[in-house]
Amino acid sequence: MTTATNEYPTKAYGATAPDSGVGPMQITRRGLRHDDVLIEITHCGICHSDLHSARNDWGGTTYPIVPGHEIVGTVSAIGDSVTRHAVGDRVAIGCMVDSCLECSHCEADLEQYCKSGGMTGTYNGTDRRDGTQTFGGYSERIVCREEFVLRLPASLPSAEAAPLLCAGITSYSPLRTWKVGPGSKVAVAGLGGLGHMGVKLAAAMGAEVTVLSRSESKRDDAAKLGAHAFLNTEDKAAMKAARGTFDMVLNTIPVRHDVVPYLHLLRIDGVQVLVGLIGPMPEIHTGVLLGRKVLTGSGIGGLAETQEMLDFCAEKNILPEIEVIAMQDIAAAYDRMEASDIKYRFVIDMESLRAA
């Protein structure tokens, strides 16, 4: 067992103000507590949440901020009481690094909905023990409580595995919650980072998958990703013909939009799950819900479900489509992400940061 107690000076990239952009900075990782794991980060995915948080688009950002919650790396040291991980293990961290682990939600493996102050975010959160700010994966290394460090299956490549920690689990959790499987008819609205994972995962679960998009250019991509059908949402006749068809609409669209057309597509007791939109949505007439249509939202999964997702992706060989970039290219990546010029997820090779 390797134990370390000193703090760790760490190269990172972060923002110092809403308009500062993301650039080089130096941070300090805490010395290991008895239940901590030190991880040398090899790869970190880029999520739309990173961009919005860095720019304070949602409010509540505390500066400086170091984004990144799709983290893959190797254990380099462990605290005295750590039993789940060993030096040299390949591991992963998602969107949370702590919770109370004692409330009814945490005991039900729903740590992401912790009733005692909520989960502690991997970045822009507050450490539950010392009150310091949490910094994310745009950095050389990270220190994390052992329960929140996940095992990375050997068959998952590190770069491709990174987006699974947010895009993967955000799509996987509602599919599992609503028991998607053989015979299910699932529509995926939007074909970006979340949507392309939703297609792959739902198809691997045995569902009949249809991609919903207003862009005809997405038709070929949908088929390549494993979708069985494509429905152009601008085609009013086709949308009318598809009413009452689907068990689930997995809505990954990240911008404000009208959800009513997707509710019409649901059968009785069908569910539309919002996983992309954060913020106000247009007002809807409740009459559309009278056919026992369910409109709900879903966040990430808990620790057990996230590990299950990683194992499922390893078993089924489900990998996100990625483009690997250097840390120094983050500004260009953000611009391209805003322009939807990525198929379908950026991943940072952290060696570029170490070499800088």
Q: What is shown here, in short?
A:
The chain is an alpha/beta fold and 356 residues long. The protein is built from 11 helices and 17 strands.
What do you see in this structure?
With 356 residues, the protein is an alpha/beta fold. The chain has 2 domains: 8-166 and 321-355, Medium-chain alcohol dehydrogenases, catalytic domain (Quinone Oxidoreductase, Chain A, domain 1); 168-297, NAD(P)-binding Rossmann-like Domain (Rossmann fold), CATH 3.40.50.720. Helix content is 24%, strand content 26%. The protein is built from 11 helices and 17 strands. The protein has helices at residues 48-54, 104-107, 158-161, 167-177, 193-204, 218-225, 236-241, 260-264, 303-316, 330-338, 351-355, and strands at residues 8-14, 23-29, 36-45, 71-78, 90-93, 96-98, 120-121, 141-145, 150-151, 185-189, 208-213, 229-232, 246-251, 266-274, 294-297, 322-326, 345-349. Helix 4 (167-177) packs across helix 5.
Which secondary structure elements does this structure contain, and how are they paired or packed?
Layout: E1 8-14, E2 23-29, E3 36-45, H1 48-54, E4 71-78, E5 90-93, E6 96-98, H2 104-107, E7 120-121, E8 141-145, E9 150-151, H3 158-161, H4 167-177, E10 185-189, H5 193-204, E11 208-213, H6 218-225, E12 229-232, H7 236-241, E13 246-251, H8 260-264, E14 266-274, E15 294-297, H9 303-316, E16 322-326, H10 330-338, E17 345-349, H11 351-355
Parallel strand pairs: 10-11, 10-13, 11-12, 13-14, 14-15, 16-17
Antiparallel strand pairs: 1-2, 3-4, 3-8, 3-17, 4-5, 5-9, 6-7
Helix pairs in contact: 4-5, 4-9
